[in-house]
């Protein structure tokens, strides 16, 4: 893994942590699919989702990565603290449970990457972007479902 990829991953992790643990308004829930769709499209366009030397194994690892990302993303979305300000704005903020789930998410991704490397299926940028898209989409879906149950400000 080259230094540029490590720096990009570190920046993405830092960005996600800041956004998840600083209180922020939950914006335009009708467009929650846009960022995941862009990430998935860019990931697919980059290629490398299926390793030619091990096509079945690489598809299984990709599917496991997507499923794990979606699952942990959904749990993070369900664990975030949600509230509505007096002006009606919906806010979300991470908490200790979200931090633990974020760690679980990273550990799962690293474990799958190590497993892939052990069997000759290297992690490619495309696969990382597709799993990140799944993770973000799951959080958005969980937050949207929960936000509909929070009463509007009076």
TrEMBL record:
Transmembrane parts of this sequence: 6-22, 34-51, 57-77, 98-121, 127-145
Keywords: Membrane, Transmembrane, Transmembrane helix
Keyword Transmembrane helix: yes
Protein name: DUF1453 domain-containing protein
Organism for this UniProt entry: Streptomyces katrae
């Amino acid at each position: 893994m080259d230094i540029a990829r490590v720096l990009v991953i570190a920046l993405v992790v830092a960005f996600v942590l800041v956004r998840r643990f600083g209180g922020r308004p939950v914006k335009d829930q009708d467009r929650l699919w846009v960022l995941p769709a862009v990430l998935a499209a860019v990931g697919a366009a980059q290629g490398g989702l299926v390793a030619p030397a091990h096509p079945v194994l690489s598809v299984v690892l990709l599917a496991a990565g997507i499923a794990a990302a979606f699952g942990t993303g959904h749990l993070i979305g369900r664990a975030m603290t949600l509230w509505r300000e007096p002006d009606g704005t919906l806010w979300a903020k991470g908490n200790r449970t979200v931090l633990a789930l974020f760690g679980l998410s990273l550990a799962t991704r690293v474990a799958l990457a190590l497993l892939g490397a052990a069997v000759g299926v290297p992690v490619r940028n495309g696969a990382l972007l597709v799993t990140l898209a799944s993770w973000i989409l799951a959080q958005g879906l969980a937050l949207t479902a929960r936000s509909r149950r929070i009463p509007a400000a009076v």
